Amino acid sequence: MQAASPIPVLIRELRLQSAGVVSVELEKDDSSTLPPYEAGAHVDVHIPGAGTRSYSLVGAPGATATYRLGIKREAGGRGGSRWFHESARVGDRLEISPPKNAFSLVEDAPHSLFIAGGIGITPLLSMIGRLASLGRSWELHLAVRDRRSVPFAALLDQYARTDGGRVVRYVSADGCGRPDVQALVRSAAPDAHLYCCGPSGMIDAFVEAGRHRSPATVHYERFAATEAAATVGGFTVQLARDGRCLDVPPGKSILDVLLDAGLEVPYSCTQGVCGSCRLAVLEGTPDHRDSYLTDDERAANDALMPCCSGSLSQRLMVDL
């Protein structure tokens, strides 16, 4: 399996968008155009000394001159956000993946409801921008710690002035509390499409409230895993294409073993959230630990995320 060729880019602009959130604008290093993308897409960024991280594309869908990212400084993170906040400089060269989209917008929905917490607004901004440009009906409920913490506030204000759009802010410091996620979901029209991105507790409430709805109308994206990775080991991964059998020892993930064997498997978050490392399973029963596959996809047992999932069978054959 070969990863898509990386795209060389330059940092064109760095701008503080709100307390703890920096806006990063990227352009192609030879000034040519970038690939177009759809609302909800993200790119994987190869960060010096910090590996690969996935960040949502904030700008208008279809933009090809530059890409814009919104990156929150995470004190307990793995170094990616710290690099952008402390070390990144205009003119720095980076490599990114082509845009990917696992959080797509349904553009022709009669109404779209968005629920976000803090930096969770970033993947929703391109969706809202797209709906605003189409004149579609949408509503955003955004929870933040204080008014200085609203990412891309000017852009949100611009979208809120368009016909058919509405922004509701919940500011903890002002005593406005938090959105009642379950009430918002349960009161939404059956044909409305609902989107959520934010803290785990918010998404958990959103998913639970949406169980009575058609699954096709409930969309969400997580930033962190909800289950511990499978690292017990003690099973074998067979590569279907060349027949090799690789032992997975305790303390290592399937992805670790594949990379150690010299296989070029694409990956990014290493938490089972982004879907970059998805592999087809031909035989065996995976021990699913990801937050990416749907319940139906898990039940089918024909795919897994090797960065975090293991095996319930002694042997697992994958399409490599």
From TrEMBL:
FAD-binding FR-type domain residues: 4-106
Pfam families: Fer2, NAD_binding_1
Residues annotated as domain 2Fe-2S ferredoxin-type: 235-320
GO MF: 2 iron, 2 sulfur cluster binding; metal ion binding; oxidoreductase activity
Entry keywords, A to Z: 2Fe-2S, Flavoprotein, Iron, Iron-sulfur, Metal-binding, Oxidoreductase
PROSITE patterns to which the protein is assigned, alphabetical: 2FE2S_FER_1, 2FE2S_FER_2, FAD_FR
Keyword Transcription regulation tagged: no
Domain of life, per lineage: Bacteria
Protein name as annotated: 2Fe-2S iron-sulfur cluster binding domain-containing protein
Species whose genome carries this gene: Ramlibacter pinisoli
